[in-house]
Amino acid sequence: MRKLSILIVFAALIGFGISASAAQRDEFPATPPPFTPGIYPCSNCHAGLPVDPKRRELKDEHVGIKLHHAEQERWCLDCHSADNRDKLKLADGETVNFTESYRLCGQCHGNIYRDWKAGIHGKRVGYFKGGKRIYFLCVSCHNPHDPKFKPIKPLPPPIRPEFNNGR
Amino acid sequence: MMSMGALAGASLGSLAACSKAEVEEFLQKRFVEMSAGEKKQVIKRLEDKYFKKYGKRFNISTQPADEAVLWGYGLDIARCIGCRRCVYGCVTENNHSRRSPQLHWIRVVRQKKGSMINLEDSEHYYNPETVPEPGFQYTPVQCQHCENPPCVKVCPVKATWKEPDGIVVVDYNWCIGCRYCIAACPYKGRVFNWAEPNIPAAEVNTEVHYLGNRPRMKNVVEKCTFCIQRVRNGRYPACVEACPTGTRKFGNLLDPGSEIRYLIENKRTLRLKEDLNTEPKFYYFFSA
Fold first, then answer.
1. Exposed (0-12), middle (13-18) or buried (19+): which is B254, by Cβ within 10 Å?
2. Please, are residues B106 and B227 in contact by the beta-carbon 8 Å criterion?
3. Using a CB-CB distance cutoff of 8 angstroms, which residues of chain B are in contact with residue A119?
4. Residue B273: which residues within 8 A CB-CB, separation 6 or more?
């Protein structure tokens, strides 16, 4: 009888653990990743190429990508999975799809991730009630390799009253 | 049109203690509320008028406020870069006069960093090459939809009032153009049509609300309506959608799960000129 109750408690704990990690993997209905046309799936090229884990500056391909995002501490294969280029890699080794890339960003930018999940970080469009809520992926606005926003030209100021004919 | 109802409502409220016969004797068939048929006639007349002027069929909505809704707005001062895309997004959605006169409902105010509270020391005609400029801070200001609006108090004809969902609206056909409300507003939220508005016919937005973005006429006051034609259908206002940095937030203050409630409870929030007791529903916050 005692063994049975211990078994039941154990099973319940495992069940709780599984459901907890499943809850962490909540899918957010987000926009698709803004890939350059033709670049995905990456395994089209990378399936046949050898994996070189040495940290270096790329000379043959992807030369247009200049990493400007903690580049002293990391390089490409710290976020992109070396074994499967169609996926990204979290800090604990777990791979995620590009459609869930917010989990990767959320590892370091936890407070922003929390705000994004609540709906108060970033652009919101569409319906907040009655229709489908759309989330934008982090990378829809922030270039993951060079995320800092560049200054933009402002739209024109209002016309001064003395020139605003009829005001 | 709604004003007649508001007047009747106000009178009937103070006559609540009287019997129906006493009320009828007092009001003597003046101050009757408009019937549904009469309201439809007014809308039809306006739609025909707009068709004559702009050559397009307008769809004037009279959708009333929903139950248990109080709209609130959030603005993230840490993220506004002063690009004015909200200003022009509002212009396109809400049928503003573009030139002679040029009317904007949103005014982006630039201050030196560190002088947030001192609104008198600000200007809104800045025009640098790029924004944001280092050392400056940008604060967009529009009608704050106060719970205790001074503009509503001073209107001599009750052409402006606060709707049940918190939006302060103007009945453009009732407004006499005295501009007391512009004098009373502490936030410079309202603007006046000094001349007949000029909207290019190609850019006219025909999905309008009677109390919102339908084309105005000379000699009336207008202001931000929280995009009443959009929010009563569950859509975000045009300025929220136009902002490229995600500075603007909107939602129902009475819904505990809404974005606006989350940010009020979790971020440092402030409202402008709180000492005036206007109780604005425009919450400025710092997300960082």
1. middle
2. no
3. 249, 259, 262
4. B119, B186, B187, B280
| Domain count within chain B | 1
Tell me the pLDDT tens digit for each residue of B64-81: 999 999 999 999 999 999
Contacts of B130 in chain A (CB under 8 A): 151-154
Q: Reply yes or no on whether the pLDDT at B4 is more than 60.
A: no
pLDDT tens digits along A81-93: 988 888 999 999 8
What pairs with residue B269 in β-bridges?
B285
For residue B288, what are its two tokens? 């960082």
Examine residue B285 and state whether it is found in any structural domain, yes or no.
yes
First to last CA, chain A: 88
CB-side neighbour CA atoms (13 Å) of B98: 13
pTM across the whole model: 0.84
Kindly state the average pLDDT of the residues B264-288: 93
**Is A22:A53 a contact under the CB 8 Å cutoff?**
no
- Residues with Cβ within 8 Å of B139's Cβ and at least 6 positions away in sequence, in order, are B75, B77, B80, B108, B109, B110, B111, B116, B122, B284
Residue of A nearest to B79 (CA): A122
8 A C-beta contact, residue A107 and residue A89: no
pLDDT, tens digit, 9 for 90 and up, residues B134-167: 999 999 999 999 999 999 999 999 999 999 999 9
Chain-chain contact of A124 with B101 (C-beta, under 8 angstroms): no
Say whether pLDDT at B265 is over 60.
Answer: yes
* Domain harbouring B107, CATH code: 3.30.70.20
Tell me the three-class secondary structure of A61-129, residue by residue.
CCCCCCCCCCCCCCCHHHCECCCCCCCEECCCCCEECHHHCHHHHHHHCHHHHHHHHHCCCCCCCEECC
- Is B254 an 8 Å CB contact of chain A? no
User: Are the Cβ atoms of A156 and B102 closer than 8 angstroms?
Assistant: no
Does the structure's ipTM exceed the value 0.85? Answer: no
Q: Does A161 contact chain B (CB < 8 Å)? A: no
Residue B268: other Cβ atoms inside 10 A: 12
Selecting from A115, A122, A159 the residue whose C-beta is nearest the C-beta of B102 gives A159
B89–chain A Cβ distance below 8 A for any pair: no
What range defines the domain where residue B132 resides? 63-288
Task: Record the tokens describing residue A114, joined without a space.
Answer: 């929390």
The pair phi, psi for residue B244, each rounded to 5°, is -80, -15
Q: What is the pLDDT of residues A101-155, one digit of tens each?
A: 999 999 999 999 999 988 889 888 878 777 677 788 999 999 999 999 999 999 9
Report the C-alpha gap between B135 and B80 in whole angstroms.
Answer: 13
